[in-house]
Design goal:
five-stranded mixed β-sheet, single chain, D-Maltodextrin-Binding Protein, domain 2, globular, 3 domains, 306 residues, four-stranded antiparallel β-sheet, alpha+beta, Arc Repressor Mutant, subunit A, 15 strands
């Protein structure tokens, strides 16, 4: 029996942990067919089936599960050994894989990534932007960016980007002229609302706060979408009201093509955080990013104090 290729073993782990070829391909930035070919090669070399495949799911066989349990620690040891060598370099090298929400990819990382990579030319940064909640470490990522409520308590967490954000409600002038402006969140039941659906399938509720009171609304209207951009264009076109991150709507409000509504009820919340597992041997590229963000944050605080 010939020795299996390490890349095929990595592909097997990715598919097994993601429980599917499509999701694993999305996370690794490759095609599902290439992962399927890798699994076929691996099973042929080992002479045993590793994954049970149906049209709805992919699950490891008994042999596959045993291989997963042995490969996980083995690959972690390899990564640790390579990173120990990496520590002797003046500047770390290697690939840093991040899983981030789309708001972070659009509004936070563009001001960080170019300067970080310029400071560390030996690092390759892979960023997967998705609002789908997954076990990012099981999927092979080094770290993630999320909001506090979706981060496991045993993670190391550090703020990245704005410390406070808020959701903003707005509609096009034509819509408000035709339907009137709501003065209380409960009035939204009589309005057309452009709803957002997460990639998990869950419909996002609209939550408003004022004076310690919380009002939750299940938005109903002519459009439900996973696309923030489509929600924005639909609101500008007068299709209904939208309620989303202020960063997505600020330009349209400034230009007057959207009108803010329900201002006293807008919800504020803590900004996102970079998070990663608590482990003794942090990969060099991840440590470099953590140090870079800390230095930036320290510099901003010194600038404020002067």
């Amino acid at each position: 029996m010939s020795e299996p290729d390490l890349s095929d073993l990595h592909a097997f782990l990715a598919v097994a942990r993601a429980r599917g070829f499509r999701q694993a391909a999305l996370l690794r930035g490759v095609s599902a067919s290439s992962l399927s070919d890798a699994i076929r090669r691996l099973e042929a070399r080992l002479g045993v089936r590793l994954l049970n495949r149906t049209t709805r799911s992919v699950t490891p066989t008994e042999a596959g599960q045993g291989l997963i349990e042995r490969l996980g620690p083995a690959f972690a040891e390899i990564a640790g050994a390579l990173d120990a060598v990496n520590g002797f370099r003046d500047s770390p090298t290697g690939t840093l894989r991040l899983n981030v929400p789309r708001i972070a990819a659009r509004e936070i990382l563009p001001s960080i990534v170019p300067r970080f990579l310029a400071a560390h030319p030996g690092i390759t940064l892979e960023i997967s932007a998705t609002d789908h909640f997954i076990d990012v470490f099981a999927a092979g990522f080094d770290a993630g960016i999320r909001y506090d409520e979706s981060i496991e308590r045993d993670m190391i967490v550090m703020p990245i980007g704005p410390r406070v954000q808020r959701f903003v409600a707005a509609a096009g002038p034509a819509y408000l002229e035709a339907h009137g402006e709501p003065k209380h969140p409960r009035e939204l039941v009589d309005h057309a609302c452009i709803a957002h659906r997460f990639e998990s399938g869950r419909l996002a509720a609209w939550e408003f706060t004022r004076g310690g009171k919380i009002v939750r609304i299940a938005p109903r209207g002519p459009l439900v979408t996973t696309s923030i951009e489509l929600s924005l264009s639909a609101a500008v076109a007068g299709l209904g009201l939208t309620y989303t991150f202020e960063e997505f709507l600020s330009d349209a409000i400034e230009k007057g093509v959207l009108v803010p509504v329900l201002k006293p009820w807008w919800q504020s919340f803590p900004g996102p955080s970079l998070y990663y597992p608590s482990r003794a041997h942090m990969p060099g590229p991840l440590r470099a990013l953590v140090d870079f963000i800390r230095a930036e944050d320290s510099g901003k605080k010194k600038g404020i104090s002067r």
